Amino acid sequence: MVVTLKEVVNDPQGLVVTDALHALGYPQVQGVRVGKFISLELAEDDLESAEARVEEMCRRLLCNGVIEDYRAKLRLVPDA
Amino acid sequence: MVVTLKEVVNDPQGLVVTDALHALGYPQVQGVRVGKFISLELAEDDLESAEARVEEMCRRLLCNGVIEDYRAKLRLVPDA
Amino acid sequence: MRPAAADSPPTSAELRELALSESEYRSAADQLGRAPNRLELGMIGALWSEHCSYKTSRALLRRLPSEGGRVVQGPGENAGVVDLGGDLLCCFKIESHNHPSAIEPVQGAATGVGGILRDVFAMGARPVALLDGLRFGDLADPGQRHRFARVVEGIGWYGNCIGVPTVGGETYFDEAYQHNCLVNAMCVGLVQRDQLVKARASGPGNSLLLVGADTGRDGIHGATFASVQLDQEAEGRRPAVQVGNPFLEKCLLEACLELTGDPDLIGLQDCGAAGLTSSCAEMAQRGGVGLEIAVEKVSRRERGMTPYEVMLSESQERMVLVVRRGSEERFRTAFRRWGLHCEVVGRVIEQPLFRITENGSEVAALPLQLLIAGFPERHPVARAPQLSSLVAADPLAATPPWSPEDAWLRLLASPNCGDRQWIWRQYDHQVGDDTVLGPGGDAAVLRLRGRSDGLALTIDSAHRSVGLEPRRATAIALAEAVRNLACVGAAPIGITNCLNFGDPDRPEIMWQLEEAIGGLADAARELGIPVVSGNVSLYNQFAGRGIPPTPTLGLVGLLPDLSRRLGAGFLAEGDLVALVGAPGAGPAQVELGGSEYQRIAYGVLEGPAPELDLSREARSAQAILAAIDHGLLSSAHDCALGGLAVTLAESALLGGLGARISPPLDPPQESSPNWRFGLLFGETQGRYLVSLPTGRLAAAAALFAQFNTEFAALGSVGGATIAVEGVAEIGLEQAAIAWSGAISAQMDSSPSPQR
Amino acid sequence: MTVRFGIAVFPGTWSDRDCAHAVELTGEVAVPLWHADRDLKGCDVVILPGGFAYGDYLRAGAIARFAPLMEAVREHARGGGLVLGICNGFQILCEAGLLPGALLRNSSLQFRCQPTWLRVESTQSPFLAACPPGQPLRVPISHGEGRFYAAPEALAQLNAEGRVALRYCDQNGEISDRANPNGSLQNIAGILNQQGNVLGLMPHPERACEALLGSDQGLQLFNSAIQHLAALPG
Ligand SMILES: Nc1ncnc2c1ncn2[C@@H]1O[C@H](COP(=O)(O)OP(=O)(O)O)[C@@H](O)[C@H]1O
Ligand SMILES: [Mg+2]
């Protein structure tokens, strides 16, 4: 899943990366934000309940609602 | 784009998060790996050349080829 | 002995991969009485690598004096140990992580710190301090800035996360390190005498435990990797880079320290270079026994790993223990409490053999003698290059490009003389609540709990002349380190050293190695300080070009009375400024050979290295300690890089006070009109710049006379400028701007985005 | 009556020993509390020390907050018991929801270990009651993720309710950007919960308890708590 800082929270790392890219000669870069990409393997055969679980994990641990948003995409992998 | 540690490279963070999720009562979690999610706005109208550019930025700055892999997905946004 | 499943003889390509020569292979086969199989060959290759065997430097290292009244453990264990008195021991060692840091700066540097920490707590000692020795190319180069920033980040990350303070270090920039940055890390630990653990296996039937990280395909051939030149080849060896886990190591550290002193703990050893193979072989050999490992019992991070991969993996954050048979469960429980899993992977056996089995069948069986001591020592030819004309050159001949003031400010603004705060503010230098003097002075000072004395630590490398006169320049490094300790009020008690050199198969580099070790050996003997541990890093070479020889010394000293400690900065307006230990006529020396001024003004290295008089050094260090002990001084600062002018400015800037001195202006007759630059920036050895209350002048003069050490009051503290009467004068503000921006101005102009 | 300071130890905690040392300097008792236990061993004050619990992986404090010990700490806090979160401990308290807001990566993107000056903004809290008003405290920081953030409403509420405990300032107590070491909103270095019995701060008072080590002004927080408890009836 993808966990990103809320729009309202400023992201110095994104700013530095932007500057660095400009310095490297990419003026067309408008704005950069850096978040987390979490890939997670679940042993579940039912997509529904898997989604519910992931939802829950995000709320409880993986994402801090005060500063972050998340979105998760699930994919069914045969005999994972 | 998504920047992740190469498969062969140890991901201590992923291991600790896995343990944490198990402790929280999610035994069905098989493995977790944590990478970076970088969203980047480009002022380019030609998708082709934009792709080439991003490719280049990843190699030069955004991805540490020694331990990381990357994949980028581009989307054309009207009057970005 | 029964050959384990024989293989076809290795191709020369395979041997190259293992950094084994044809003749070494033959020697191994002869000693074994058969052809080693692939696994055995891999194990031999790893242990016979330069990194593990020291096959090229060993003979030379024997010259280093390692005896002394305080020495509890010299070279040969994971770290050296000296006695601090009252049953408290100090355990320390320095190690290089140059090659990994060149390839992946953050993780390379971080795992270097992780490795040296394990060497220290493997002995049962609690790490109380880290120091780092860094060498990079020109900071004006963005690539170098990036690498430098990343290495500092990596060192900081690991040390900060594990909670061991990084209290000092050394940093130097020169184009010559452009392709081979040097990253040396030193760790200092404390242990009660009865808690000291040795890395020895004993008692056949006792169990071998592996604890910590799961074993993955990390850094296979890392040991050999560190023993070959860094070049295009490195590309293909990249998997040798690893991601460190300071969190896991912190748990390992605490768990191990809980277990030291347990009568059932027989041996403890870190898994470093060459992983299980080297750590187990070393433990068995030291204990005069054998070991048997059931490779399937080693818990893995990845599927389908072969015995070869398991035995040669260099996965970080692992330790091996030998425990008394029957006590295994107790140990496993203790580790589990810290979230660490611990497996019984083997046992001690009678015969001096290293046996590896997989599911009951033997896959390798090698005599430990062969593994540890069987390698043919290498004695490459050493030949001195033609340098006499360079050494003879007169560094004062050329016309100075700048005025004295201008040169002074440029030196202060150069990254080698300027303020290092940009580095150490990123290091937690206080955790542990014992740091009395952190980074920024001549030496760091830690208190010792419940005692009135303290510990002093410093890292110093050879004078820049090392390329021309390795012997003297290395001795100078030791003299300077001793002065650094003396400045805070400490006497040296032990040395650790890291020898960073190029390819020893080049005669001139072998010569450098011989000379440097000789210089260190002689100086250490003369000054009576034992060398108790160290590390050698060779092949610091890129595309045929080697680094300047870089012997780096780590010294540990004792302050008899912590309350007497001194800083390098001026303390009070009106104090006198004096120069101690200046040979001959006074400060009017013209020793610019290899000086920092020469480097930035002319970009050359020529002229004789500064004179070094070790008996004088010993005397003046004694005198300074006595003066400090009698409470005569307000500050003391070693007069080194950048000479009198830079030293004076540093004491002024650290104290936030100006100063004015008027050295006797009596230029040696023969010296050129440039003698002023020699006076300001000459790097004449043996000197201390001190300040003292006027009321103490007579007493001080008398004391230094007793020690037959030169003492000359040159001026006083105060005013808004820093002045050398009749030669040059700069504003305190001006100087502060130049000095404090030397590194930070360049670095903060280009913050590094990653991680 | 002696005061019992419970000092939490999570895997990765490192200022537990420094905190214990500080407590011993006050003459009171330091009791280690293991993260896996639910028992506060009758402690009057719970300290969540600095460090990198669980390596600060994912987010500082994100995993530690689920430790069994934290349930007991929550109970203790709810009952008005004193809780002091230092550095990593502050991060844990925020993740646990015992304090509002969050601590983000320093705006410099670098770890910072340096002395700071702290202006005491509220003497409401038992931890600050004894601090001489208007006198900034010299206490060092040592963190990479200390940039305090709270949503505008939360921030407004903190200010309105006088729950901003400490702000980074200069030697003269002036609040300025130059005095802000990590980009924290409004120079906030420490905050209180509604009852004032829970204090979280990024700086390390336990490192500022001896002149020998540069400052002894951190001791005031510990002494303040001790005086508060001594004054309680019964
Ligand atoms: N330059 C040196 N001077 C003195 N001792 C050295 C030197 N280089 C290595 N040693 C000693 O040789 C032994 C092996 O060194 P090393 O392989 O670096 O230790 P480890 O395997 O624990 O990392 C250690 O005891 C070390 O102190
Ligand atoms: Mg070792």
Quaternary assembly: heterotetramer
Please report the total strand number of chain C as a whole number. 28
The number of helical elements of chain D comes to 5
Shape of chain C: globular
Order of helices and strands of chain D: EHEEHEHEEEEHEEEH
Name the strands of the widest sheet of chain D in spatial order: 2-1-3-4-11-10-9-6-7
Radius of gyration of chain D: 16 Å
Chain pair sharing the greatest interface: C-D, 33 and 33 residues
Instruction: Provide a count of the helices of chain C.
Output: 25
State the secondary-structure class of chain C.
Answer: alpha+beta
For the largest beta-sheet of chain D, the strand count, sense and barrel status come to: 9 strands, mixed
Helix content of chain D: 10-25%
Mean pLDDT of chain D: 96
Q: Pick out the low-confidence regions of chain D.
A: none
Give a quick set of tags describing it:
heterotetramer, A: 80 residues, alpha+beta, Mth169, Chain: A, 3-stranded antiparallel β-sheet, 2 helices, 3 strands, 35% helix, 28% strand, D: 234 residues, alpha/beta, 9-stranded mixed β-sheet, two-stranded antiparallel ribbon, 5 helices, globular, binds adenosine-5'-diphosphate, binds magnesium ion
Protein architecture, described:
The complex is a heterotetramer, with 2 copies of chain A (80 residues), 1 copy of chain C (755 residues) and 1 copy of chain D (234 residues). With 80 residues, chain A is α+β, with helices and mostly antiparallel strands. Chain A has helices spanning 12-23, 47-62; strands at 2-5, 29-42, 68-71. Chain A has a single domain, classed as 2-Layer Sandwich (Mth169, Chain: A). Chain A has a 3-stranded antiparallel sheet with strand order 2-1-3. The two termini of chain A are 18 Å apart. Chain C is an alpha+beta fold. The longest helix of chain C is centred in the N-terminal third of the chain and has 21 residues, at 142-162. A 9-stranded mixed sheet of chain D has the order 2-1-3-4-11-10-9-6-7, sandwiched between helices. Bound molecules: adenosine-5'-diphosphate (ADP) and magnesium ion (MG). Magnesium ion (MG) binds at residues 78, 119, 270, 272 of chain C.
Topology:
The complex is a heterotetramer, with two copies of chain A (80 residues), one copy of chain C (755 residues) and one copy of chain D (234 residues).
Chain A: E1 2-5, H1 12-23, E2 29-42, H2 47-62, E3 68-71
Antiparallel strand pairs in A: 1-2, 1-3
Chain C: H1 12-17, H2 22-32, H3 38-47, H4 50-53, H5 58-61, E1 71-73, E2 80-83, E3 88-96, H6 98-103, H7 105-121, E4 126-136, H8 142-162, E5 166-173, E6 182-192, E7 207-212, H9 222-225, H10 246-259, E8 265-270, H11 275-287, E9 290-294, H12 307-312, E10 318-323, H13 328-337, E11 342-349, E12 353-358, E13 361-367, H14 368-373, H15 388-392, H16 404-412, H17 421-424, E14 435-437, E15 444-447, E16 454-461, H18 470-488, E17 491-500, H19 507-527, E18 531-537, E19 541-542, E20 545-546, E21 550-559, E22 576-580, H20 596-602, H21 614-629, E23 635-638, H22 643-655, E24 659-661, H23 675-681, E25 688-692, H24 697-706, E26 711-717, E27 721-724, E28 728-731, H25 732-748
Parallel strand pairs in C: 4-5, 9-12, 17-18, 24-27
Antiparallel strand pairs in C: 1-2, 2-3, 3-6, 4-6, 7-10, 7-11, 8-10, 9-11, 12-13, 14-15, 15-16, 16-21, 17-21, 19-20, 22-25, 22-26, 23-25, 24-26, 27-28
Helix pairs in contact in C: 7-8, 7-10, 8-10, 10-13, 16-25, 18-19, 18-21, 21-24
Chain D: E1 4-9, H1 16-26, E2 29-34, E3 45-48, H2 68-78, E4 82-86, H3 88-95, E5 102-104, E6 112-120, E7 137-143, E8 147-149, H4 152-160, E9 164-169, E10 188-192, E11 198-201, H5 219-231
Parallel strand pairs in D: 1-2, 1-3, 3-4, 4-11
Antiparallel strand pairs in D: 5-8, 6-7, 6-9, 9-10, 10-11
